[in-house]
Design a protein that fits this description.
Layout (H helix, E strand, L loop, with lengths): L4 H40 L6 H4 L1 E8 L2 E8 L4 H6 E6 L2 E7 L3 H29 L2
Antiparallel strand pairs: 1-2, 3-4
Amino acid sequence: MGFEFSEVAKLKESLIALNIASHKIHLKVARRIAQLAIRKVKKMTPVDSGDLRNNWKYSVIKKGDTYIVVIYNQLEYASFVEKGHRIVIAGQTVGWVEGRFMLKLTEDEMERIAPNMWKNEVEKEMRRIFGS
């Protein structure tokens, strides 16, 4: 059982191409996940004036080999709508408004579907590079 040196050289070139493409693949998938998360969190956000819904933003941060998707809303009251808050009248707590958990529910869903999105994109790129 033998092998052709040209096949090993071809494999080496394919692996180099995959390594070069990997950053682009991962960044593309991270952005796609972030955009999907923004759409989902906006759908779940309650609307009064629309400010809260329209202020959802994202950023993708790379730390080492890890891509971190950060979803945020800079409005002061966003955390109160997310987690709930007390109702205070004349210094007395008279009730509680339950949180909507729109970000937490979106985060849970993204953690569930993200691995498959990454897997599918990497497999697609490997098929393109290795020609299977």
